[in-house]
Amino acid sequence: MRGILLSIVGAVFCTACVTSPQTREDLKTSSKNHSSMAIAESHTANRRFEDVAATLQKKWQECFNVNVTTTRKTQSGMTTSKYRDSFHPYTRKVNNSLIEMTLRMTTQGMVMLNKVPEGGEYMVALDVVRLAGNKTRLDWYSPAWGWKENWQATQQWSDGKNVPCPN
Questions:
Q1: Where residue 73 falls among pLDDT bands split at 50, 70, 90?
Q2: Domain locations in the chain?
Q3: Helix, strand or coil for residue 100?
Q4: What's the predicted TM-score (pTM) here?
Q5: Which fold has domain 23-158?
Q6: Which of 75-84, 100-109, 118-127, 158-167 has the lowest mean pLDDT?
Q7: b/e per residue 13-23 (b: at least 16 CB within 10 A)
């Protein structure tokens, strides 16, 4: 019992040390400043801004607008926890040369020890930037764990390749 109590206290203190980004800008800054735990990379596509933006909006809705249910069971089959993560892609046209794409996640059925901003945790920030010569730059910001394949797929989609949704 004492071990469980110490584990809970330790988890609370550790969670206090690591806070979730509270804004899109927080996610970008955190990703830039913690390169070993995050992805902050750019990619240039040799396609028109409008074509890249349309493709990415379509693929993000298709691939990232999902619900994932996780169930944990004991060896005897008894369910110990069940929760659902829902991912919400958003697109905002800032001006004729910049589109901000943001992926947020809400969790139901689990107590979150970290402070989650209203509307869900910020998982990915993607800036789609118009460049000269019918080129487009993507600036991606996310945690490293579990997001590399999504970044690679996004790069391929921006290049006009029809690759499947990542797992």
A1: confident
A2: 23-158
A3: strand
A4: 0.83
A5: Alpha-D-Glucose-1,6-Bisphosphate; Chain A, domain 4 (3.30.530)
A6: 75-84
A7: eeeeeeebbee
